[in-house]
User: Fold this.
Amino acid sequence: MSVWAGVDVGTQSLRVLLADDDGTVLDRATVPLTGRRDGARHEQDPAQWWSALGMAFRAVDATRVRGLSICGTSGTFLLSDATGEAQTPALMYDDARATDAWALPKLRWLLAHGPAAVRAGLADGRLVLRHCGDHLADRLTGDQVATDWTSALKSGYDGGWNVPPDVPASALPAVVRPGTVIGTVGRDGAAHTGLPVGTSVHAGLTDGCAAQVAAGALAVGDWNSVLGTTLVVKGVTATRLADPTGAVYSHRHPDGGWLPGGASNVGAAVVDDRFPGVDRAALDAAAAAHEPAGALVYPLRTTGERFPFVRPDATAFTVGTFAGDADRYAGLLQGVAFVERLCYAHLRRLGADTGGTLTLTGGATRSAYWSRLRADVLGRPVALPATTEPALGMAVVAAAGDGDLTATAKRMVRMAGTIEPRAGDRFGEPFARFVDALVARGYVDAGLAAYAKEPS
Assistant:
């Protein structure tokens, strides 16, 4: 069988995974990454990405790899010259100097406030915007490759480049469908990684889309909830969803149709913050006696919400009084699940089909109790993929190439099991009160609240 490699460049590590045509994971390696945070600034050194890529491939049997694809955090980019050498640090997705998480505002910030050499290089066409995967592919192939359309979305590409006049056209890369062969590994790339010369390099995806591929959520009506530090929901629709609130945005599906989604600022991190270093298994067992919890909690970590509603001034709140730590813990888990339920109500109200397979991925799935609780709150079966790493999604992208990504994922992605919701909707009444509390604070409109309370 052929061996395919997926590369996932995250904030804290770079991961390589090897899989065969049937999706069997053959090997994997992880190399840590560091960054620089200083107030609103968050940067990484692209040279460290390159070093980590070499170390990770040297830790697996790279000589067997037929093709590879790379994903990175959405909105992260750098500027490089025609030789592929980085001329700026990588501005990370959450670098806040431009006040907006998308890459295009960051590029405009560099045009206005960057070093003089950078501004001059952009103006005279010597510097080009490169997303994380683009830069590593440049170095692997020895040439300046095209980017993919999911990575380019936050840089201003939506079926074509649509950028303000102050952004030079020469700074914008060519854009292709994910999976397209954009080059082959050259001599220098092979020497650095151990990959064979001539190994195909395929256009990649953002990390969120890669996780969706790894979950196999690629048919219309399928959705994937990723509950890690934050909650990210992504799915598939035949037509593009129009969301006047701006909470939902859509990538183009490589096979046609759309990949809409949104990212909330609630997530598993709030549980880590409020219950550090505790025995989670014991708390899970204790939480089962508090269904529903004695109070409601909207579990934001910091000010601001992005999905299922957009309110930069939103803050966490608690309604009622908890009986103790187990009750408070249960309330946090239920609060995140209530936000997830509201996310799907918002999507259905926009016209999305959410009736397909719903998969759960992310670090929170390590808690079997929380996964079952979420199935109960959502009132529907949830499937748990056997391998949830975005790097597997990228191996699938490489294996599919310019062919049918959905069919390739169906062959390569396996499920570990399905959780059926328990009978009854014992969370319906507290969920309704939770939504009413959001309405009372002006975070949610009455129309969405009424719709969300209706049976799905």
Observations:
- The chain has 15 helices and 22 strands.
- Residues 3-209 form a domain with the Nucleotidyltransferase; domain 5 fold (CATH 3.30.420.40).
- Residues 241 and 350 are 6 Å apart (CA to CA).
